[in-house]
């Protein structure tokens, strides 16, 4: 079984000029801006199931999607997608939106991007989100690592800040997206230290040297069983993400440097969040 644990969704009207401007700067070769439900379903043909969520990064990345878009995708393709809500603690109606997403729309987890919303993990506005997630057995996926957004404060993407939250909420399952790149060691020591914290490898295979270092480090810390696979679609696709993982050792071929074990590669590729991220068992 292959599960993509990190898929973004938005419709055309959710893409702001800021996103197009920043994509032109960081990806001059261009990329598809389409990430609607039908596009996602076609793109995810190569996986058994995918976790999908909207982004509310309007003022930093230039995408302002919503939970209704996520829920509509899940309703249209229920055999393929499981939906997570998005939490923006800057909004006065954040908890109202979160309760609606979970209790009315039926979404099964929560996504948050501290670096994009400019809200530190220890901000008091995060407390009701953590408490709601822990009470309702909702895994919390967080963007960890750097970003292209010029308005996003880099320090808020560092996984070291998760440690204190994990100790405060030991029953809250947290997933650190993108292995905290380029601070992957902080991510790895955090998931090693805290039983309720996991990580995932979406959107780092296209930095081959960093990707190899990350997985070798994870092997040395014996945490490869806590790492999950994803794409970060549409920023990267299924086939290229699988190929990037399986070819991770290409950068060290012919050297005496250690290799990422085949067992590690296959364990990550076939990792199943539905077996690990919920205390009460799989939501699907």
Automatic annotation (TrEMBL):
Residues 3-273 form the Amidohydrolase-related domain. It comes from the Bacteria. Pfam families: Amidohydro_2 (PF04909). InterPro entries: ACMSD (IPR032465), Amidohydro-rel (IPR006680), Metal_Hydrolase (IPR032466). The keyword Lyase applies. Keywords: Lyase. GO terms for molecular function: carboxy-lyase activity; hydrolase activity. PANTHER family: 2-AMINO-3-CARBOXYLMUCONATE-6-SEMIALDEHYDE DECARBOXYLASE. This is Amidohydrolase family protein. It comes from Marinimicrococcus flavescens.
């Amino acid at each position: 079984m292959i599960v993509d644990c990190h898929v973004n969704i938005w419709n055309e009207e959710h893409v702001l000029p800021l996103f197009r401007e920043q994509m032109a700067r960081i990806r001059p070769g261009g990329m598809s801006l389409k990430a609607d439900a039908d596009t996602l379903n076609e793109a995810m043909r190569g996986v058994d199931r995918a976790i999908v969520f909207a982004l509310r990064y309007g003022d930093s990345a230039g995408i302002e999607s919503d939970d209704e878009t996520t829920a509509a995708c899940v309703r249209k393709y229920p055999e393929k997608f499981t939906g997570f809500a998005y939490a923006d603690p800057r909004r006065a109606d954040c908890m109202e939106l979160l309760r609606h997403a979970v209790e009315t729309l039926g979404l099964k987890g929560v996504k948050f991007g501290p670096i994009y919303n400019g809200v530190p993990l220890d901000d008091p506005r995060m407390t009701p989100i953590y408490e709601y997630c822990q009470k309702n057995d909702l895994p919390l996926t967080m963007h960890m690592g750097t970003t292209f957004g010029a308005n996003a404060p880099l320090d808020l993407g560092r996984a070291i800040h998760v440690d204190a939250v994990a100790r405060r909420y030991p029953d809250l399952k947290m997933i650190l997206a993108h292995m905290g790149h380029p601070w992957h060691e902080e991510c790895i020591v955090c998931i090693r230290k805290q039983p309720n914290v996991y990580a995932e490898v979406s959107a780092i295979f296209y930095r081959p040297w960093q990707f190899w270092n990350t997985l070798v480090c994870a092997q040395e810390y014996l945490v490869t069983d806590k790492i999950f696979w994803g794409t970060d679609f549409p920023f990267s696709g299924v086939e290229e993400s699988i190929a990037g993982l399986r070819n991770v050792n290409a950068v060290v071929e012919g050297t005496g440097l250690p290799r990422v074990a085949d067992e590690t590669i296959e364990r990550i590729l076939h990792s199943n969040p539905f077996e690990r991220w919920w205390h009460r068992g799989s939501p699907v």
